[in-house]
Every structure is written in C-alpha cells, then in structure tokens.
C-alpha cells in the first residue's frame, strides 16, 4: 500500500511543481510569488544584518552566547537550568528594548535518568554498559 501511494504522489508531483497545493487564495500560488514576497523583506533583513555586523549589536551575539553557555549550561527539558535560561533570555531581550517580550505558560515534561543496567544471562553471565534515553520506558520486573 505504501508503494501505491508513493507512485501516485510521484505522478502528481510534476503537475504541481512550483504551485501551492493549498486551496485558499491568501497563500502564494507559485514559487515566483514566494520569491517576490521574500524580496519584500530585503530592507528589513539588511537592517538586521547591519545592526549585527556593524552596529551596536556587533559581537554581542557571541558574547551573550558565551555567557549563556558558561553560566547556565545544559538545559534539559523541565530542568532548573532550563528555567534559568528562560529567565536570562527574557531579561536580556527586555534590556535590549525589544517590543512585546513576554513569557507564556508551557507544560514541559521532566525526565530524570534512573539507575541503568543490563545483564546478559546466556550463554554466560555478563554485565553490559547501556544508556537510557529521555522518556524511555523501564523493563518490567519480569524481564
């Protein structure tokens, strides 16, 4: 069944090359429309690049990243470091005078690595080094 769908899709692809598959009229229909829309942002993009390369933001990105990485460290999902990172960036963006800087409530799962071990029982008893991945499920007691 997968192959039938793939063949069907590949046969349709040339008919819609460069055209939007959406039916609503608000979305650009061709790749030329997309190019024109992107070209409309040239002045804004140039201003951002000039600020970062030649303006008062020159080298600040790397300095901020260095401080961020050195003081906060790894930011695992739901960790205290993630909360510290969010507060740090929130404050930094406000200090930079950006508009509409705000926090939104988000539920983030928190996972902590537990004890991990594996043992080969046959043909001989041997411990095996393993590493559990985030949100992985434990082996049931019966094995």
From TrEMBL:
This is Carboxypeptidase Q. It is found in: Secreted. Keywords: Carboxypeptidase, Glycoprotein, Hydrolase, Metal-binding, Metalloprotease, Protease, Secreted, Signal, Zinc, Zymogen. GO terms for cellular component: extracellular space. It comes from the Eukaryota. Belongs to the peptidase M28 family. SUPFAM superfamilies: Zn-dependent exopeptidases (SSF53187). GO terms for biological process: peptide catabolic process; proteolysis; thyroid hormone generation. The keyword Zinc applies. GO terms for molecular function: carboxypeptidase activity; metal ion binding; metallodipeptidase activity. Its main location: secreted. Gene3D superfamilies: 3.50.30.30, Zn peptidases (3.40.630.10). The keyword Secreted applies. Residues 1-18 form the signal peptide. Coiled coil: none annotated.
């Amino acid at each position: 069944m997968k192959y039938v769908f793939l063949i069907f899709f590949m046969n349709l692809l040339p008919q819609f090359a460069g055209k939007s598959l959406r039916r609503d009229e608000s979305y650009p229909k061709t790749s030329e429309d997309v190019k024109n829309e992107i070209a409309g942002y040239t002045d804004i993009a140039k201003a951002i690049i000039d600020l970062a390369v030649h303006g008062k933001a020159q080298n600040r990105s790397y300095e901020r990243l260095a401080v961020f990485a050195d003081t906060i460290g790894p930011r695992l999902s739901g960790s205290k470091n993630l909360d510290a990172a969010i507060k740090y960036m929130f404050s930094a963006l406000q200090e930079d005078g950006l508009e509409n800087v705000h926090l939104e409530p988000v539920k983030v799962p928190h996972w902590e690595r537990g004890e991990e071990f594996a043992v080969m029982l046959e043909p001989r008893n041997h411990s095996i080094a393993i590493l559990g991945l985030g949100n992985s499920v434990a082996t049931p007691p019966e094995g």
